[in-house]
N-acetyltransferase domain-containing protein (Ascodesmis nigricans), 95 residues
Amino acid sequence: MLYVDVNYQRQGAGQLLMDWGVSKADELGYSSLIESTRSGKPLYERNGYTGERKHLAVPEKWLWRTPVQYWLMYRPARTAGKVNGVNGTNGVNSD
């Protein structure tokens, strides 16, 4: 779980953590899948994640609570400037 204390949000801490995480995934050639809250979604989108909103199913005894929404987001593996074996990020092979 990644969370930046509200007193330190919007100061670049989350992006520093993302920089490390996506560079490590790229180094290893891994795709990544995350769950995001509404507040974290823009950060993940800026870092190449796409996804769709989901609703968390809750037990009946907690139905009085506000439903929990999250986004299941995916980022494909990237290595040496390539996405899924295609140069660049726009799907056009420039070779």
